[in-house]
Amino acid sequence: MFVTSAPGKVIIFGEHSAVYNKPAVAAAASSLRSYLLVEPVAEDQVLELNCPNLQFAHKWSTAQLSEITDSHVLVTESQSVLLSNPLLHTIDTQLLSGIDNPLQRSAAQCFLYLYLSIVPSHIRSALRCTLISTLPVGAGLGSSASISVALAHAFLKLTQVPSRDLINQWAFVGETCMHGTPSGIDNTIATFGGALQFTKNDTNGPHELHPKKPIVAVLTYTKIPRSTRTLVSGVRDLYDSMPDIIEPLLDSMAKVALRGSVALEQADLEQVLQLVRVNHGQLVALGVSHPGLELIRNLTTELQIGETKLTGAGGGGCALTFLNESATTNDVEQFKDMLQEKYEYQTFETTLGGLGCSLLELDQLSDPRVQQIVQLFRIPGPNVVMEQVDNILLPGGPADLPWVF
Ligand SMILES: Nc1ncnc2c1ncn2[C@@H]1O[C@H](COP(=O)(O)OP(=O)(O)O)[C@@H](O)[C@H]1O
Ligand SMILES: C[C@@](O)(CCOP(=O)(O)O)CC(=O)O
Ligand SMILES: [Mg+2]
């Protein structure tokens, strides 16, 4: 029995342009995480997935899964870590019937895809997998990547001692199941943690950033639901309809990201603030903002406390605010109170960076401790109690459990 965990992320510069091979900058939101408990179960011949955040639970019989193994998984195995469209299609048509909620369906698809591709049939045994997240789901903070990383890590661990590179490669496949055409920035951050400048298809790999000062930001969750897949495909349609206009805009976004990584490393706050404003404007031009995000920006401007941009795919979800040097504690409290009380948004003040994916072996812990941990995963509804999970499970947190990696 073990738990894997991976953080969410905040894209500071370059969401969407990242999909078009342009550099982007992101950092882990290491206190906002997903956790996956993997338990052997007595019930024979079954693979079980529980997702309390989505009020979703489902079981598949080994017989159902082995039909698929025989006809399709070999294709994936022979091509190593690549997405196999026939396998994705087979999962979709044969294993997901009756799962109509799109959030539940994409979680189940990613779960099954990674399980069937990574765990060879001769070592499969009855398992219960339970996923919980303390980061908001579908909010631009990379929950899809954090569950992909936690799942890839767990399934690879069933077969070998996995490297971070391999976890990241499979997590990218998981992100592809969910998004269609991800850049890979989210899974890379969720795997490695820290802060990175990342360019898709760059053979040199991501470039680690070492900011002179910790990056502190205010995140505001609008609770406006949106889907990354839909937003990314909307930008694709815009690109295809006017490539001569959108390509230079994406090139300009790339320049913002490059200049932004230097400004972050040098802790040049003035420059960071200007680039945040410019990058948000570029994202507005791509059509991915939302009135609910604009009101956070407007409030930041009215109170003159700094600059706000959308973060992640946009269309709702979260905004990222950097405070200027003249913002007083009172101003910031007023900003947060207004967002929380008038609009019922949620705000978090957080330091970016920190731990990537990690593993906790439960066999090394005392029985009462194991019971306490297992209970965290047995919550009945969608409301994961963040404080309880953080107090016990957060890697590097108060309980100081022996997380590794
Ligand atoms: N705790 C979780 N349990 C089950 N599925 C999850 C969980 N967290 C994320 N997901 C999956 O990720 C999807 C959200 O991904 P996405 O739209 O990319 O938003 P984001 O990655 O910004 O949170 C959900 O629809 C769901 O399928
Ligand atoms: C829009 C995009 O740049 C980020 C999506 O992040 P999220 O799923 O909204 O957390 C897509 C990507 O880079 O894969
Ligand atoms: Mg996502």
UniProtKB/TrEMBL annotation:
GO molecular function, one term: mevalonate kinase activity
Catalytic reaction annotation: (R)-mevalonate + ATP = (R)-5-phosphomevalonate + ADP + H(+)
Annotated ranges, domain GHMP kinase N-terminal: 125-194
Compartments (UniProt record): Cytoplasm
Annotated InterPro entries: GHMP_kinase_C_dom, GHMP_kinase_C_sf, GHMP_kinase_N_dom, GHMP_knse_ATP-bd_CS, Mev_gal_kin, Ribosomal_Su5_D2-typ_SF, Ribsml_uS5_D2-typ_fold_subgr
Start and end residues of each GHMP kinase C-terminal domain: 263-343
Pathway: Isoprenoid biosynthesis; isopentenyl diphosphate biosynthesis via mevalonate pathway; isopentenyl diphosphate from (R)-mevalonate: step 1/3
Matching Pfam families: GHMP_kinases_C, GHMP_kinases_N
Alphabetized PANTHER family for the sequence: MEVALONATE KINASE
Family: Belongs to the GHMP kinase family. Mevalonate kinase subfamily.
Alphabetical keyword list: ATP-binding, Cytoplasm, Kinase, Lipid biosynthesis, Lipid metabolism, Magnesium, Nucleotide-binding, Steroid biosynthesis, Steroid metabolism, Sterol biosynthesis, Sterol metabolism, Transferase
Annotated function: Mevalonate kinase; part of the second module of ergosterol biosynthesis pathway that includes the middle steps of the pathway. The second module is carried out in the vacuole and involves the formation of farnesyl diphosphate, which is also an important intermediate in the biosynthesis of ubiquinone, dolichol, heme and prenylated proteins.
Name this polypeptide is given: Mevalonate kinase
GO biological process: ergosterol biosynthetic process; isopentenyl diphosphate biosynthetic process, mevalonate pathway
Enzymatic class: transferase
Source superkingdom: Eukaryota
GO CC terms, sorted: cytosol
Entry's EC annotation: 2.7.1.36
Main location: cytoplasm
SUPFAM superfamilies: GHMP Kinase, C-terminal domain, Ribosomal protein S5 domain 2-like
